[in-house]
Model the fold of this input.
Amino acid sequence: MKKSTIQDIKAGAMFALPGLVVFFLVVIIPFVYGFYLTFTDWNGVSQVKSLVGFKNYVDTFKDVEFWSSMWLTLKYVAISVILVNIVAFGLAYLLSNGIKGQNFFRAGFFTPNLIGGVVLGFIWKFIFSNVFTAVGKAVGVDWLSKSMLSAPKTAYFALILVTVWQLAGYMMLIYIAGFTGLSHDVLEAASIDGATGWRRMRSIILPLMVPSFVICIFLTLSRTFMVYDLNLTLTKGGPYASTRLVAMHVYEKAFTARNYGVGQAEALFLFIVVAIISGLQVYVGRKKEVAA
Amino acid sequence: MKQQKVGGTKKIVIDVLLFVLVAVLFVLFMVPFLMTILNSFKVKMDILRDPLSLAPSKGFSLSNYIDAFKKMSYLTAFMNSVIVTGFSTVFVTILSAMCAYYYVRHDNKFSKVCSSLMSASMIIPFQAIMIPLVYIYGAKLGLLNHRATLIFMHTGFAMSMSVFIFQGFIKSNVPLALEEAAKIDGCGRYRTFFQIVFPLLGPTTATLIILNVLAFWNDYLLPSLVLGVKAIKTLPLSTYEFYGTFSADYGLIMAALILTVLPILVIYLVLQKAIISGVVAGAVK
Amino acid sequence: MKSSIKFIAIVLAVMVLFCSCSKKSETATTNTTASTAKVSITLLNSKGEIQTGLEKIAAQFEKDKGIHVEVIACGAGEVPYTKVTTMYNSGNAPTLAILDPTDIVGLAKEYALDLSGEKWVSETDALNLTVDGKIYSFPFCVEGRGIIYNKSAIESVLGRSFDPKSINTYSSFKAILAELRSKGMENPVFLAKEDWSLGAHQLGYIYDAYDGTTAGSEVIINELKAGKNPLDVDRFNQFVDTIDLILEYNFAKADPLGADYDQGALELACGNVAFWPNGCWAWPNLVEGGADANGEFGFISFVLGDDPNDFANTSIQASASKQIMIDRIQASAEQQEAAKEFINYLVFDTTGQKMFVEETALIPAAKNNPNQPLDPLGKDIAERTASGKLYTSCFIAPSDHWSVMGAAMQKYIAGMSDKKELASTLSQYWKAQN
Done:
């Protein structure tokens, strides 16, 4: 017993420590300091700050816009997570069965990830407000010649569309890794047993792919909850603040409205919400994994 | 015999339909890129007047590329990006693989706590640690404006996700028996890890390298906080003066985007082969 | 155990080597600048479009005065105030920062150097921004706004000559819009949908046009804070009338929130519209849209009400929209002196004066600069400066004013809210600032 503890510590120092040290220095310490700031009235720049207790948290609960943007974000996350994963899984499945030009297509669907957030939003804004409208005018379709970004519902949809466009390729890659990790023996045995088509998918493939689902859903959850760059450059929260997601609201609270403590408290709150949701998701997923 | 043939044609029809489906989706996916490439050769007025036009009034020219290349100090910025991305990726890949290996093989309280801490940290909004981060590393330690600091931070921020993905893979795909055999043969821990375990992680490593390289290469916010001096700026930082207060220079931005993306596209295509060969090697064995 | 020590040693060695390497390259670069320059300062630029121009000025300044100025750009999607805040937190505060007046007010007392005693103060008098009676910033440039017209487009539709001075009331503006429509230009005004444009520049008239002074804008703002109903404010009612008129003749009527700034520049430049409410900063974009530097562009007032003698209808608003402050806290005394010298270079040095006008294409706030603006919009403002047809009010609002009220204005121009709702949003915004 004792020997194994020593072994654990020794291995820990050898393997886990270097990475953990970097991680703690870069992520955890600033986070803890940020946590401390939520108890102050700091405005983000002043040299003086004093402790105000839980006032910022009380303000968070009173901030109506925070809650409405949180609700908007929840809907956005739910729709995006579902769509992204359906598209990604579908693509990965299609592109793991030896279709002609498979590698070319894989690379192609992944390319949206080659562009970073700010430029991505800029390009899509251009596509929505210039290219699509030009197409609409050219073919004389009325609804298409209006910019999708100019009405709340369509702008919201535009955000989701771009999210799916970008994340699907990323998740596809992970699903493909999952598919290639599936043992050939199992699949062969299954097809010898006569399991084909939907049955093969439902009773063999899906259970075996649970780990990939857990990872992908977790990643999509965290990515979509945090979305900021895209929100800022694509819709800027508009039209008339109808698409302002929670990360953007937090950012504006902290910096534009110069209320750093409240912004930080809201960020922490957001963190907790996401932690609970994704924690549950991983927990349920892992349980399924064990059962399978 | 006959039936088999029917099955054959049916399969062909399905294959063709699937191919068409994928191809159509592919074209839709590519629209933004095609538009970017097309318009990167036009002047701003033509871009705004008709982004679809194949015969712009001022014609097509390379001038956006030449301007962007100069204004970005492309070669310097490119080298900076390569250094930052390269080192960060190497560090994070090795450190996270080791970390994940420990978590899986030593399933004790310590690794459980650390592992869940890491997973949780993936959902910390970056804005929530941005100010404390620059305060600690800038005002307190005076470490900003060094590429090494950025590499260090990139490594720290990317740890969680890499560990998370490696962990899942090691758990399900690396047989313990191999390691035990190596141990009996008298291999040290590091030798066991680097010679036996790490090579088995091939496909996942390749995937993670791609994801991390992309994240580092394109990252804007963190480098903008760390690198203030022009001489050490990375590619994304060097393009931002193309965005004015009121209006942006579309042609320049598109050309700059393509100049930024091209090197990474090459890396991706090269690595993609590596993934496949990794998988093939696994199958042969 | 041995192998683990070895491994850690190697990792450490690589890291140390690497850090020292990158440090070396850095000291190398600072050394080379140090050989030609003794002091090195930084300048945060929040006006992306003049980045190249500023770098050229900085290079010339280094040649002339031996001081190195590193121009730091504030990038896409970065709020200048956030940028400067982060830089202060990171201990890398810019020696000089070009910022909006609102941001200067926010930072002045704690961080900015008192510049009240500088020589240029008398050259920029009316445009100086005072905070508690002191001047903490140098008025960098003058920007004016109103309704930009394209004279040749108007004349070719009307078939007669057009005198911009004749548009000095709501009714006269309405009349010419109707005339343009009757002669074939269906919708002669372009209204851009950007929130900064709608929220700060257009809606801002209700404060700036109070009596044309910054002090006056404070009076109306304080009244609103105290709970005065905007519907009882004359300027608010006049403003909404004019906006309604513009919406009636809006080029982008079918999709008001699809009309962006770039399109506005394009449509005005090529004469598809006659008027575009915007500012002198739009000139480079008009050129990109195909406007000719000799073209006849200029400003009419953003008309408010029907009194032809009202200053708001005879003059346009122009103020020092960007100010430069010098850091008092983190910069050394030597750097602060160098920063002052840079400002003096822009104001008093003949090369500096000339480069300022030519490289940035901005209108200098200092009246001793003999170089005339090169473009029609700048020329119009210069003429108005000479003839006194300007009012210099520059309202100071909290930093989220433009985004909150910009959203409310967007809702209004999209027809999703009415005057009453706009008024109540405005009223609530100000009441919440108490």
